Amino acid sequence: MPHAGGPHRPARRPRTADLRDVVALDPVFARPGEATELPRFRLPDQPSLPETAYQIVHDEAMLDGNARLNLATFVGTWMDDHANRLMVEAADKNVIDKDEYPQTAAVEERCWRMLAHLWHAPDVAHATGTSTAGSSEACMLGGLALKRRWVEARRAAGKPADRPNLVLSSAVQVCWEKFCNYFDVEPRYVPLTEEHKVLDGHDLEKYVDENTIGVVAIMGVTYTGMYEPVAEIAAALDRIQAATGLDVKIHVDGASGAMVAPFVQPDLAWDFRVERVASINTSGHKYGLVYPGLGWVVWRDADALPESLVFRVSYLGGDMPTFALNFSRPGAPVLLQYYQFLRLGVEGYRAVQRTSHDVARYLADGVARIGAFELWNDGSDIPVFAWRLAADHTDAGAGWTLYDLSERLRTHGWLVPAYPMPDDLTDVTVQRVVVRNGLSRDLAGAFLADLEAEVRFLDALKTPMPSAGERSAFHH
Ligand SMILES: Cc1ncc(COP(=O)(O)O)c(C=O)c1O
């Protein structure tokens, strides 16, 4: 029989007090949990010290790409120190607890009313809106309001309401495909072509009929950053109404552009100045300049958001109307949005968005000058632009593709996706850069230098780049 302390006796697990001693003695990466392995796909049996768990999570997150070099995302990756402080202070607030956090609720309403004003709602007092988790939820709510409004009008007229359709460009963001799928609406995609790079109202009468709940116009198409001309789309719908009597409304998906156009193109009428626009969404976490987790949707007036969709939660002894897919959601991003609104004001937002614009134009010029590319657009709508390979690099078989270039740029830390364009243009592959607050002119210069060096490297190859099939892993 082995004696006490002998080789068969299981090692005694140190109690927490002992663990603290061990931590005090051991260097960080020699602690239990750091120096040994914790299970990854089931809960560990025992707790770890907070220092150990923190270090493990921190280190794992460090392996992600560097958010600031992520030129693929539209989502905010930089906020100032005051915002960072607020984020930590407000991390425990649940936006749905209106009664418990009445100030956050009040701030939320102030924010969407500010947006209603910014987007020229004819009467801000009669506009209505809400924060959301992002533009996806905001688009779903906008789509649901269009659908319910159509259903109620059809029922009131004694007509069938079982085959709703929505007209949109084939370049819509995936959230609209989800909306149509989840809520049983037929999507009617208007394909893009070289002549019609965005939905611009041409041929609209071929898609719109009595079952059309609305038309989506995108301010800042995800694939390219280009604006869809809302006023032209509305004019096409006016003509359709004159010919058929159908009164079809527009939802503007301004995920990015609704926080760029008011500052950079203030004279462009894309918002509630266009009478057919019933609702507008934006992502607070894109050009609203807040960290991920925030969207907004505003309806022109109560008519545009049927009362039958509204639920009430308790608020200050009474109740408050809400319209949302989620119940609980972080309140901190709402407070951060308010911080940005106060901090920047119109002039501040203009300065930030103009700077991003200047950087985008500088980059687009630089990309065009390399010679291997042809710009698809130049970043003059939202500060986003895309390019394809120049004819001599595709037809003459340069031996490399934009997917190869994307991979090469990754070795420098830059994330710049390459992907095919949507239906009817799928043979065109583009690469896109999204310029956001935080991509300074200096960083942009470093990016251009890396891009040029990689093009030189790829052009100098004696044999074509090996390919494992050119499938883009990028999702819009
Ligand atoms: C035009 C457009 N609509 C909707 C979305 C979805 O936005 P979110 O990521 O905020 O849900 C995006 C995201 O890129 C977008 O570009």
TrEMBL record:
Its cofactor is pyridoxal 5'-phosphate. Keywords: Decarboxylase, Lyase, Pyridoxal phosphate. The keyword Lyase applies. GO terms for biological process: L-glutamate catabolic process. Its EC number is 4.1.1.15. GO terms for molecular function: aromatic-L-amino-acid decarboxylase activity; glutamate decarboxylase activity; pyridoxal phosphate binding. It is an enzyme of class 4 (lyase). One of its GO terms (cellular component) is cytosol. It catalyses: L-glutamate + H(+) = 4-aminobutanoate + CO2. InterPro entries: Glutamate_decarboxylase (IPR010107), PyrdxlP-dep_de-COase (IPR002129), PyrdxlP-dep_Trfase (IPR015424), PyrdxlP-dep_Trfase_major (IPR015421). The modification N6-(pyridoxal phosphate)lysine is found at residue 286. The keyword Cell inner membrane does not apply. Belongs to the group II decarboxylase family. PANTHER family: GLUTAMATE DECARBOXYLASE. This is Glutamate decarboxylase. It comes from Luteimicrobium xylanilyticum. The gene is gadB.
